Amino acid sequence: MLNAVEKLLVLQERDRQLAQLREELDSIPPQRAAIQARMTAAQQAVEAAKQKGMHLEAERKKLEIEVESRRQQIEKYSLQQFQTKRNEEYRALSHEIETCRTAISQLEDQQLELMEQADQAHHEAASARRQLEELRREGERALADLVAREQNLRRQFEELTAGRAALAESVEPSLLARYERLRRNKGPRVVVGVDHGACGGCHVGLPAQVVIAVRVQEEVTHCPNCGRILFYTRDMDMVRAE
What we know:
Elements: H1 3-83, H2 87-169, H3 173-186, E1 191-195, E2 198-199, H4 208-216, E3 221-222, E4 229-231
Parallel strand pairs: 1-4
Antiparallel strand pairs: 1-2, 3-4
């Protein structure tokens, strides 16, 4: 294999590795954001459960005040009953007392319901706190792992970038420029082998003289269809498929 083509193959592999590292590095911020979002959601769930409990307690206290108010009304009406001498007024006060007792019964039922809801909210809050603590532990470990992974990837990226630059300097400038242009236009695979007499990049059959030139390896050979740089190894099948 021509030394120039061999260098380009190594350069292409370095570029592939750099692209993979870049992709892995780019994936870290979304992963970090997802972990933080889960932790934030868990914290919000705890706060929501807490607020729910506080709201239920406030509603229960309102009912307590209302019950006490009704009881005071009963005491007032009972005293008025004791003081009145008119049957009509006595019956009216009896009706008011009964209305208050009915209201108290209903209010106490509501209190019981709120107490049950408050108990459920308490369990939900405790569960939310446990989930938050678990997520925090897991999240902190995951974030620490991401930091270590990011540092390792950046170190590899810097080392590969430096090695790639040194390798690129050893390639003849015009050939390097063609390689870079092909990468921009054709994607990452621009130095390709011959497969059954066809270009390994565009898969178009190669003219016989091009196949011969690739095998002879006296100069850099390009695919006449796509312009990719061709190379040959002994294990390649150069016979064109029918």
